[in-house]
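Encode chain A's predicted structure.
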Amino acid sequence: MRTQGIALVATLALMALITLLVFGTFFRTQIELWVTRNDTTSVQAFYAAEAGLQKYKAVLFQQYVWREQQINTGGGAGCYSSLVTGVDLHRNGTLLTFTDNRIVLAQNENVLDANGNPVGQYTVTLIRDAQDGELFTLVSRGTSSGAKATVQATFRLSNSGYLEQAIFAGTGQANRWLNGGATIRGGIYIVGNPSNPDQYVIESNGNFTLYNRYDLTTYPGIANLVESSYQRVSDLCASVRVQYGKISVGGSTQIGEPNNKVKGVFVGRGTQDITGQNVNVCQNNKGVCTEAMGPFDLSNPPPFPTLDAKLDSDTCSSYSTWRACLQDKAALRIERIGNTLNLLQPTQVTLQPSCLSSMLSGTLTLDQGNIDCTFTRLDGTRGGFRYSYSSGQGVLEVYGDITLEGLNVVFERPIAYRALSGDEKKATFAVLAKDGQGGNLDINGNLLPDASHGKFPNHVLGIVAEKDVYQRGQYVMAPVYAGGTFRVVKDNVLFGTVISNQFCTTSAGNQTNCNAGQKAEVVYIRIPQQNRPVLMPSLKGGVPTFKVLSYERR
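Encoded structure for chain A:
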């Protein structure tokens, strides 16, 4: 009897142990299943968030490219992109606008598996930087069966068109004279020479500086000629891009500042093409104060514009060459061949005797005499240009775009310009070569907008010279194109943009050589697209870039 009781107790104990083992295995299996399920849903939530991020990164870049091509208005003095006003996702004119610098682009959109079954959702929000109009953050929050995940990317949208830089230079190597005391306020873009990528295109020494800001009140008499919102800009979104070539940073050179960095320095093959070392700032980054550094980063870079190449701008894209566009679109076109002057456009009008007689020598000089090259159109409006001089000051009135061929032009005296094309306060003054003659323009005095007619950059005269532009005047305020060399004498300043094959500083007003150590400045003042003279170099939509600056997973 006692033996049977012991056996019963042992059996019950064994059964209890087996039961515990069975239940333990069951619960362990269940826990593993729960953990696996949680891992799966967490992974699904992450991939849902990632799907939203990647989809709307692509959507936003495509939207940006489209907006840059479609919208020819807008912009401010500093960092700007066409998305700062909102997003037109369906391209139907319905704009999603920012509220507290945020737009919800997608709300609980489903992510489907291969069979079309929903496995998660995402909500995507676009955040606009309050200070920098090119800087955006995309936040995507994914969910799956209760699990949550967040990913975000911060990126910069920018445009590398011709008129988005302080200096846009071609293959000419005189850019190496960007040194000494030269100061550039704004970005620099250099194409360089593809056959010689080891050549230095910038050799910056001495006190060369490139700043991301300007204050026009420090230049006597200049601020009053410029719209108030453009008089001081603390962030120009400046960058340095060199497609082919190297740059050298030495001496007391300063590219950017520790508290106001340039947005990027992208040179040739990368940091190996950035040599030298300055002695003052940002020593851990080759003396360059920049948010990003690396190789040249544009897959479809803009070429340097030339007269005999096609210019894919809104105005000139239907013409075989930019020259043909300048000739056909001109309100007034005069050609000099040998000693003969021809009025090619408009036909059947008679100009004042002072007009053609002023050009007989092959050089049109705006000095102390008056010159009237205007005419009256059929609609009663004026075309052409007129120059008058009184009490040490010249006034140049330009009605529509002007193309002069086979002539050199000299602005000998300080000039206030008044530009008008229809009801828009803008025009282009172009000087082209013909049979090897002409194509140069000298600016020997100030060339500034007449503020009583309109302030810059809402009032703009564009300058085009097929060969060289020589700035001897202290102040010039205009976008300037020189197919050859743009020379600026020490202590002089250009406000606007320089597009030239070579940029050159000189020590005196009659030198043709470039000289190191000359204190001259280019101050980039951004011209809103609707105010840009239509015959100046431009590209439809420019060259949009989308650069991811950071990525986070939470």
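Helices lie at 2-70, 322-329, 353-357.
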